[in-house]
Each structure stands twice: as structure tokens, then as C-alpha cells.
Amino acid sequence: MSDEKEVSRRWVLVGIGVLLNGAVALLIATPIVGYLLGPVRKNGGYDSWIDLGDPEQFPVGETRLASFVNPQSAPWDGATAKAACWVRRTQEQKFQIFAINCAHLGCPVRWFPQSELFMCPCHGGVYYGDGSRAAGPPPRGLFEYPWKLQNGKLLIDGGQMPTLATSASVRKESSGCTG
Amino acid sequence: MHWLKRTYEWLDFRLKLGGPITEAVTHPVPRNTASWWYVFGSASFVLLMLQIVTGILLAIVYVPSAGEAWNSLQVLNQQLPLGWFLRAMHGWGSNFMVAVVLIHMAQVFLFGAYKFPRELTWILGVFLLLMTLGMAFTGQVMRFDQDAYWGLGIGASIVARVPFIGGPLVDLLLGGPIIAGPTLTRFFALHVFVIPGMMLVFAGLHIWMVIGLGINDWPMPGRVVRRSTYIQEYHELTKKDGIPFVPGAVWKDMVFSAAILFAVAACAMILGPFGPTGFPDPTIIQTVPKPDFFFLWIYTILSFLPENLETPFILIAPILGIGFLLALPFFAGEGEKSWHRRPIAVLSITFLAVAFAVCQHLGTYTPWSPQMQAWSGDTVPIRYVHNATPLGRQGQIVFQEKQCRNCHMLGGVGGERGPALDRVATRLTYDQLVRQVLQGGGNMPAYGKNLSPAEVTALVSFLETLHPEGQLPAHDASQQYISTGELDPRQ
Questions:
Q1: B60 contact partners, CB below 8 Å, separation of at least 6
Q2: pTM of the full predicted structure?
Q3: What angle do CA A120, A121, A127 make, to 5 degrees?
Q4: Taking CA atoms, what residue in B is nearest to A133?
Q5: Do B369 and A124 touch (CB under 8 A)?
Q6: Which of A102, A118, B147, B443 falls between 20 and 30 A from B287, CA-CA?
Q7: Distance from A142 to chain B by nearest Cα, in Å?
Q8: Is B110 helix (H, G, I), strand (E, B) or coil?
Q9: If you measure CA to CA, which chain B residue comes closest to A137?
């Protein structure tokens, strides 16, 4: 047996070793990728109907802050499991429910009932009482949640932080359904 | 001390590290590189070490849970002996590290050190800069206060603007549908495992290459870098006029690093830790989120971009910027190193430094943000109240009550989103004032729907009085003739 041949036999064994490890790595990597991509869901995949309580806490003609616990939350979320929204009741059976997040970069907008404006503390976005853009950098009006009245409760369809890419923003520019 | 020597010999017989280390630290460097300009790289590394040590000490107590992180920081700040000091050291160490890394980069750029054969050293350095900024951002998240919470919201809103995959990217960034527990844990993993691990490897390679290729020689006008001759020229230089790095140059690095560490400790001792600010409860909306110091310039840019340029700019500018930095050693890998012969390089650095300083300065007092409390908190200057008509005073009430003050200053107090109004009557006539109030425009909301005609009359009556003494309010000169009929051609 020549040296050359022995070397080549060893290299074949090394090759088999590499292949074996590659196969095992692939076997291990696949579930890891799946695990890492776990949080990704399609648009609206996180949304469900959320109870805001008795509609009578929102007087007609006013805009009030409401808060709710996000349906998707972990026990260690603490206060961050909560979310807030602005509820505007225009008529007895008609609501507009705005996300708290500015359409520009997500900061919490504040309602000023005297001037009937929403103002954002971050980059100065301003919205009118009906949620449409008044001034500043936001590319659109406030995000709106779809809502319905059911069994004497006001429900909104939400569960995900509204951004320009997520469901609450794109799906419901028009919003509003009575049920 | 004989036993010390014997212990060393026993260890080195087995470790075999003494030889390579001695060789590395005594390698010759050009004499003129033993300069105070060459101390920023080693200081960056020392700060990285400081951050790792203080970070581990904080991790002994810190709880990476959305529900408890803020409380554990309060325990560190208030209850554990010197917990506040460690937090302050870590926070100030972070600021110093970003600053020193940026200075290091500017110095290396001005000295042409990215040119052949140190292209890869520069590229690793660019990644180290990005990772340093990544550590600063993820570190802000660790504080998990209101600024961190809404900062994450801004991050998610930016990521959401990526075409097609924006939605999934937001889910990945937040680890779920909202900013909550899974968000903090993944940023914790990035901040304490992923990025620091990569930084150590990259910094190790970076230093390895500095030793292997030799420190960049002091740039001389006319000493041009050519791929064919540079290596030989450099070796001649170190042979002819070189000194061993230890002790020839290292003492300056040591003095500077000690000074920097002392400065970090002094800032920590005197100025204390950063936050945490308010409790991260998303239903508390009385908050004015602000990024940490080294991200203020981004805050400024995001406020001033026109709406239609915003998404393209946010998504394309970083790619162009990083791409430029990575490509730099390839299209400028040869030629002059001296700043005396590189006017564009000097101008670029000057421009960037000035732009950075201006944006940072604006970011500290955010003239674009409405002052949320101005309408109810700021007083109307007494000279406007004195001798005002009842209608004018009513207008002042409208002005305050309708939150005009949140965006408009009077007497130097109030928001700066819109122009200060102390001289507005000299700029706009009565009719123009009415139009501006009712229809808005120029980044002002229209108040037509929100003000009654009586309120508009009162408000504009007040605004009409806002002019300096001795300077008349603007008026439409044609009005007078129209009302008297003087210019009527029939007469």
C-alpha cells in the first residue's frame, strides 16, 4: 500500500465526516430557523375581538382614552401587556376608534378636546378630531380599529401594534362596521 | 523574587505564549506613530472591556423581564450599595465608547489608514462601529422605561416601512404582535450574547491585523501609497526609523486609556446613572419619548424630512452610507495619505462633524415638538394684557385654550413648532390672519371647524395687537381706496 493511496483513503473519510456533520447541522438548523421565525404571522394573524366594556362610558360627541389588555400576552409582560386607544363616539351607534400610535413613528398621540386636535409629542404630527392628518410628518391619518357593538359591549378588532405594514393600518383605512 | 520567575517559567514551558506575545508587543513601529493621535483605538478596546465587566456585574442583578426590569433597575439605583455607580459607569462608558470609536474612525480616515494593505482592518472597523451603535440602541432597550418602550415603537415603525416584508420584520423585531416580554428578552440576548460575542471576535481580528500589517505610518505629503511598493517602503521605514511598540509607544496609550476611564468614573460619580425614566406602561401617554444622546441626530433628521422623502430616505440612506464606508478602501486604496493633499476628505469630515453637531444640538431641545403643557402652563406676557381691549383679552383666552401656545411662542415662551407670534401683526394683515387661522397651511392645522366666528374674531383681534411699539401692523393698502371709492374709474 503506497502512502499516496493511504492519504486519499483518509481524505475520503474526512469527506464522509464533513458530510455527516453537514447533514446533522441541517437537521438541527431547520427547527432553529422555524423557532426564530415563530413570531411571524400573516396580516391580522394576531387580531381578535377585544372587549372595551360598556359603550356608555363613552359619551356621544366626546373622545376618550380607553385601555385594554392585549389578547396575545405573556405572564411576564407586566404593564406592557396593556394597550390604549382613543374612542370617539360621534353618534349613539357610531364610533371611531383610533390607535394611540402616531402614523409617523408610533409615539403616543394626545387628544386636546378644546382645539379638537390630536398632537404627537415626538416629531409634531397633528390630526383632526376625525383622525385625518392635519399637519406634520405623518404620511396618513391615525390608524383605526374596526369595531362592533355586541351584547351591550363595545368590541374592537385588534391585538397588534399598528404600523404602516401591519393589518390595523392597511386593512381599515375606511373602518367602521355596526354589528 | 526567584519563585516568581520559576512560576513563570513553569507556566510558559506549558503555555508557550511568552514568545509570540513578546514578539507581538516589541514589533517595531515607525517612530512618529508613537503619537497622541494614535491612542483612540486602544482606548476603544479598553472601554469595550469596561463595558463587559460592568455589564456582567449588572447582569447579576438585572431581570430581563418586561414586568420586572424597571423594578430591578430601581433596586440597583436605590437599594444595592453602589448599584447606582455601576449603572452610571455602564451608561457613561457607553457614551464614551461611541464617542471614542467615532473619533478613532475620523482619525483613521484623515490619516488614510484604510488604504492598502489595511482595507480589511477598516472594513472590520466599520462593522465594529455598527455593532457599537447596536449595543447603544439595545442598551437603551435594557433600561426598559418609557423612552425605551416608545423607542422600540419608533424602531418598529421604521422597520414597517420596508416594502413587502415590513410586517414580518416587525413581528421578528418585537418577537410578537406588541412591545412586551418577548421583545425585551430578544434584545437582552442581542445585548449580552450576540453582539458582544461578535464584537470580541471582530475586535480581536482587528488588532491582530494591526499587529500583523504594522501600524499606519504617519502620513507625509508626497509619500504616495502604491500596491507594488508600499510593503517594502513600510519595512524600510520601520527598520530605519522604528522603535519597539513596547515601551516606545504604549505608554501614551496607557496614559490616555487611564484618563478616559477616570473621566467615565468622574461622570458616573458626579452626574449619576441614566434613568430609568417613567414606568413602561403603554396606557400612560403623558410622556415625551426621547432617544439616548447618540441617536438624537436621527431624531432630528426624522423630524425634518419631507413626508414623501421619508420612507426612501430611511431605507436607502443607511445602505448607501454603509456601502460607501465599506467600498472606500477599494476605490481609494492607493494614493496620498496626508490630509494636506486630500481636500475632499477634510471637507467631508468637516461637513459631517458640523452636520452631526447641528442635528445633535437641535435634538436636545426639539423645536419641532409641540409643548404639550404650554397652553395651560405658560402665562401671557404682561405687556399684551396691559391696555388690551375686552375683545383682545377674549382672544388671548382663545389663544391659550385652543392650544395655539403649544406650537407658538409669545415672549420667548411656548412651543417652537410654528413661528413665534410676537411680531405676527407686522407680517400678516387682518384678512391674512383670519385665513391662516381658518384654513391653516404651512404645517398648521385648519381651525375653521373648531372655532366659532366669535372666537376667530376675538383671536385675530388679539393677534392684530402683536407688533412692536412704533411699528404699525401690516395692512392692505388697497382696502382704504376701495372703501373710500377713491380709485373708482367712474369718478
A1: none
A2: 0.91
A3: 15
A4: B445
A5: yes
A6: B443
A7: 13
A8: helix
A9: B307
